[in-house]
Design brief:
Chain A has about 325 residues and is an alpha/beta fold. Chain A is built from ten helices and twelve strands. Chain A is globular, with a radius of gyration of 21 Å. Classes of the chains: A alpha/beta (about 325), B alpha/beta (about 325).
């Protein structure tokens, strides 16, 4: 075995209660994350992909305990974050940072950029005060290729791409080791997206950052991820190295997802519809294999038996077909 | 022969203080029956405004200053308002990105489509309902007869978009304008909707003007492509030629910045800077400040369109300066 991964999630479950009636009694649960294992290695990128409602965002938020997991372990350098009380958790919040999809919604509009960055630094006692702090903030802004003078401006004065740079600078200012990027480039135009993706690549090389990249965009995943985990209805259905997942997907859902991505090769309009219908509700996932209602390879046993993650060459897949 | 829809020199402006700011500046294109023309570009380039201009639905205080929109050779911009209302939805229809905001939440989807038909045709409610049930089946809505009585919130995003398509096609329009029809949908649902649009077009021969920012969708659906930048079309070509031999520096940059077209590990191409707001558009070529090939003439008058081959044209001074082929 190589050394332990930076982050290892084991059996993570995060459910949201569904409340009804006058007494707000809990009548069921949305099983947003229902037994997820995931690893991120130091200095590497793991992508977590899936369609809306599959639970990928909840995984990211649960790692930071922005949602309380119900079960499971979140091992960061061997320490279980899920078992820590808030005071014990605080130092880890410095090491794990998150960059959200919509930078406008995640930056306080009343704070100048300088104060946005200083807030986090102050909380972790980084960068001192006064001019030392200002120098450090200028350095952070330079690092994300913004003019250091922009620290005196407010978030609304920037374009979407620039705001995302501010979001990244804020996260980097506290010297994290792992950055969770939740659809961080999804709202950006393709030419701006390219700028941010290049920046993330450079920062990884320079600072040895690890990324957990949460996205629905498979072309971005293929471009930047080392490892991929595919999620469907709260579960990981397949994981493995990026090249293997894209060249030899083994789970029918992964295959369907990849074939649905529009081609950009003018000689090959290959998009094929393999997965039909809609994703069922995570409050009542289908029995047996959760994908069986949409699976083109459906077999009788899939209706009653739930497959576990089975080893395949270069990874795992949750399907009886790989037995 | 006249095209299903032809737009000539369309100019649209909005007031900004004491002045008017131009946001569309001489947009020209045509779409033949049975053809898909994709209008691509990044946010703010004017592609959606072009679509709304064709429908004469430019939101106030914007207005069309100049230009022509010909539907089967008939000038739409000069039609009286009631006549235009008859054209809209009957001969030219539109589907939008977000079906939830274009469907009424308090009326069943069946009734909404029935009303759309009865607006343009003298037909009984029961006959219209039967036609809508057939339409729902054709656009792949399961249990169509029961879904007539569903409210929009009871349907998934994919099903709502199918309802929108059924509504847009219920009068068999000559032209369908699809503005980011699958942008809000997941990729497996998007594949189903694009497949549906291809099938329906084969059957009906409707001309489609596809508005999108996604070059993958362009490749999957379009016959020809027009690339827009800052209120103007900068390049037009067949789908194949545009992907294989883009000529305008903006189109080239756009393609080279796509992760899907770049090998992992290679840096993505970056187009320097950002799209300027309409009030700051340069007087000549609007791409000049971001263009790697910019030279002296680019600061002068805007470049003219130049034919570069069959059905391929671009507006760029650098191309005009190249020796002829």
């Amino acid at each position: 075995m190589s050394e332990a991964p930076l982050l290892a999630i084991e059996g993570l479950r995060t459910w949201f209660p569904i409340r009804k009636g006058l007494l707000r009694r809990v009548v069921g649960h949305v099983r947003a994350v229902d037994g997820v294992d995931l690893e991120v290695e130091a200095g590497k990128t793991t992508a977590l992909v899936g369609e809306s409602g599959c639970g990928k965002t909840t995984v990211g938020r649960s790692i930071l305990r922005l949602e309380e997991p119900r079960e499971g372990r979140i091992l960061y350098r061997g320490r279980d974050l899920a078992s820590l009380d808030p005071a014990e958790l605080h130092p880890y919040r410095q090491k794990l940072q998150i960059v959200f999809q919509d930078p406008m919604a995640s930056l306080n509009p009343r704070l100048r950029v300088r104060d946005v960055l200083a807030e986090g630094m102050h909380s972790f006692g980084i960068g001192g005060g006064g001019s030392e702090q200002t120098d450090r903030i200028a350095e952070m802004l330079r690092r994300v290729r913004l003019d250091p003078d922009s620290m005196w401006r407010y978030p609304h004065e920037f374009s979407g791409g620039q705001r995302q740079r501010i979001g990244i600078a804020r996260a980097l200012a506290v010297e994290p080791e792992l950055l969770i990027c939740d659809e961080s480039v999804s709202a950006l135009d393709v030419s701006i997206q390219a700028q941010i993706l290049n920046l993330l690549g450079e920062l990884q090389d320079e600072m040895g950052l690890a990324y957990l990249f949460i996205t629905h965009d498979l072309s971005v995943v293929r471009y930047l991820a080392d490892e991929v985990a595919v999620m469907y209805l709260g579960e990981i259905v397949e994981r493995g190295p990026t090249a293997r997942i894209f060249e030899e997907p083994r789970h029918p859902y992964t295959q369907g997802l990849l074939s649905a991505v529009p081609s950009v090769d003018p000689d090959r309009r290959h998009q094929a519809v393999r997965v039909l219908g809609d994703v069922p509700s995570p409050s009542a996932p289908p029995p047996g294999c959760r994908f069986h209602t949409r699976c083109p390879e459906f077999m009788e046993r899939c209706r009653s038996e739930a497959p576990t993650l089975l080893p395949v060459a270069g990874g795992e897949a949750r399907c009886f077909l790989v037995e | 022969m006249s095209a299903a829809i032809e737009v000539e020199g369309l100019e649209v402006s909005f007031p900004d203080g004491r002045w008017r700011v131009s946001i569309l500046d001489g947009v020209d294109f045509r779409v033949e029956a049975g053809e898909v023309l994709a209008l691509v570009g990044e946010s703010g380039c004017g592609k959606s405004m072009t679509a709304l201009g064709c429908m004469r639905l430019i939101p106030k205080p914007g207005r069309i200053d100049r230009g022509r929109v010909l539907l089967d050779g008939r000038e739409l911009l000069e039609l009286p308002v009631p006549a235009m209302r008859q054209v809209r939805g009957a001969e030219i229809s539109m589907i939008f990105q977000e079906p939830m905001t274009s469907l009424s939440p308090v009326v069943t989807v069946g009734t909404q489509v029935v009303e759309a038909i009865r607006l343009h045709e003298k037909i009984s409610v029961s006959a219209a309902r039967k036609r809508v049930a057939d339409l729902f089946a054709r656009v792949g809505i399961p249990d169509p007869a029961e879904r007539l009585d569903a409210y929009p919130h009871q349907l998934s995003g994919g099903l709502k978009q199918r309802v929108m398509i059924a509504m847009a096609l219920c009068t068999q329009p000559r032209v369908l304008i699809a503005d980011e029809p699958t942008t809000a949908l997941d990729v497996t649902i998007q594949a189903q909707i694009l497949e549906l649009m291809r099938e329906l077009q084969r059957e009906t021969g409707t001309a489609i003007l596809l508005i999108t920012h996604d070059l993958g969708i362009v490749n999957e659906l379009a016959d020809r492509v027009a690339v827009m930048y800052a209120g103007r079309i900068v390049e037009e070509a067949t789908r194949h030629e545009l992907f294989r031999q883009p000529r305008h520096p903006y189109t080239q940059g756009l393609l080279r910045s796509m992760p899907a077209l770049v090998a992992p590990g290679e840096p993505l191409h970056e187009i320097a800077g950002t799209v300027p707001p309409p009030s700051d558009w340069p007087a000549g070529c609007r791409f000049v400040d971001r263009c790697p090939r910019a030279f002296d003439p680019c600061a002068g008058p805007a470049p003219d369109f130049q034919m570069l081959g069959r059905g391929h044209s671009a507006a760029c001074h650098a191309l005009a300066a190249e020796p002829g082929e």
